[in-house]
Amino acid sequence: MRYARQGGIRARRRRSQNAAVLVIFLLVQTAAWLLLPTWSGRFAVLVVSVLVVPVAVTLAFDRRS
């Protein structure tokens, strides 16, 4: 079953914001994998990123209805 996307301005803005968050998250993870030699450091960056992303999204984007 295929779901149609909502086409409103708020839906488009939210999709672009989600895409930006994902790109930044992936860039941070890639940098951690390339720059940190230990698995514990990589895992620490992953855990901190997972905890910080919701806070950053809440502070950066106005998601009120």
Protein topology:
Layout: H1 9-35, H2 39-60
Helix pairs in contact: 1-2
* Rg on CA atoms, Å: 15 Å
Largest sheet: none
Helices and strands, in order, run as HH
Strand content: under 5%
Category from helices, strands and their pairing? mainly alpha
Instruction: Kindly report the average pLDDT value.
Output: 89
Low-confidence stretches: none
Give the CA-based shape.
elongated
How many extended strands?
A: 0
Q: Span from first to last CA?
A: 28 Å
Q: State the helical fraction.
A: over 70%
Count of helical regions? 2
Task: Walk me through this protein's architecture.
- With 65 residues, the protein is mainly α.
- It has 2 helices and no strands.
- The radius of gyration is 15 Å and the shape is elongated.
- The protein starts with 8 loop residues before the first helix and ends in a 5-residue tail after the last helix.
